[in-house]
Amino acid sequence: xxxxxRIEKATEQASKAVNAVKPDQLGDPxxxxxxxxxxxxxxxxxxxxxLTTAAGGGKAVAPDSDLVGDGSDxxxxxxAGRTKLLEAIRADGVLERTWEMPFGALPGQMMASIAFxxxxxHAWDVxxxxxxxxxxxxxxxxxxxxxxxxMDTMLRxxxxxxxxxxxxxxxxxxxxxxxxxxxxP
Length: 185
What we know:
By secondary structure, the chain is mainly α. It contains seven helices and two strands; from the N terminus they run H-H-H-E-E-H-H-H-H. The chain has a two-stranded antiparallel sheet with strand order 1-2.
């Protein structure tokens, strides 16, 4: 999978999870301990906007307002941000230039990998928090595991992911991925 296809598939998976969230679930806890469902949805939707700005050559700024509202149209809000991001990353040379994110400037290819990992992982988080099927498509889970494994040191920095969780050798690919990302499957 190339970088654009990765982001397309990751955000498609996240869209399925986000579109199934019910407004009465916004206060529920998530496997991502710093967020409840509302906070995680704000993080995802805000992240789409930041990535779009950075991919377009601007300096991304973290949003300072609630992007979820009453939750009744959170899926369409996510999907609108997803569409804008996919348009931005398809521009010529976007992955070859530096993206200015709130936490620093990073190569476009690296940010594309981070965006991929974030949306796959948080798709699982949203699904888990809201009682949906958490099984990720095999190809997507394997691709994400291949991308994140070399990032192990970075992922263990404070505020990124917790330590990996032990799972049995026969654990599913989804469970191995989320366990690597510090989640309890």
